[in-house]
Design a protein that fits this description.
Layout: H1 2-7, H2 16-32, E1 43-45, E2 64-70, E3 76-81, E4 84-85, H3 89-100, H4 109-112, E5 114-119, H5 125-136, E6 137-140, E7 143-146, E8 150-153
Parallel strand pairs: 1-8, 2-5, 5-8
Antiparallel strand pairs: 2-3, 3-4, 6-7
């Protein structure tokens, strides 16, 4: 009779190795995941602090200088590109396209052009992001057309 009772005993498998394998697979996929996000992928050179004499670059086109002034509340009060007034960010994009075109490649004007953003200290961050978006690319027919990749900021002026 002892044998019959043991045949009906509940067999419980050890779940520890299975849980270990699940965590190892989860860790593997987390570490090997490569997400491609074209938005926010900017080649931006931030200023080092004090304005230093920069080494001359071999550029085909002189840098495009975009000056953005802020109102007292942080809104965009005005914008100029190389000294000429710009109405809005769409106008800024159109002016950049008129200078560099939409051709892509290693020898294109867009590849060899640099944009220097001169933003007032009190300017709200949203305006800076919109300016970067306007000069760095656009969407045409569902495809991203890259414009200028080299974007830098002017150093903060002393006394602010």
């Amino acid at each position: 009779m002892a044998r019959r009772e043991s045949a009906f005993d509940k067999i419980s498998p050890d779940m520890t190795p299975m849980i270990d394998v699940v965590f190892q697979l989860l860790t593997f996929f987390m570490l090997t995941l490569k997400s491609v996000v074209p938005e926010g992928d900017f080649d931006i050179r931030m200023p080092l602090g004090a304005a230093a004499a920069a080494a001359p670059d071999d550029q085909l086109v002189p840098p495009i200088r975009v000056k953005m002034t802020a109102a007292a509340d942080g809104r965009l009060a005005g914008m100029t590109m190389n000294g000429s007034p710009v109405r809005d960010f769409v106008d800024l994009r159109n002016k950049v396209v008129s200078i560099v075109g939409t051709d892509t490649g290693p020898n294109s004007l867009a590849e060899n052009t640099e944009v220097e953003l001169d933003c007032d200290y009190g300017l709200s961050y949203e305006n800076v992001v919109q300016a970067i978006t306007a000069v760095s690319g656009m969407v045409r027919d569902g495809q991203i057309v890259e414009l200028i990749k080299k974007i830098k900021f002017t150093p903060v002026k002393s006394g602010k």
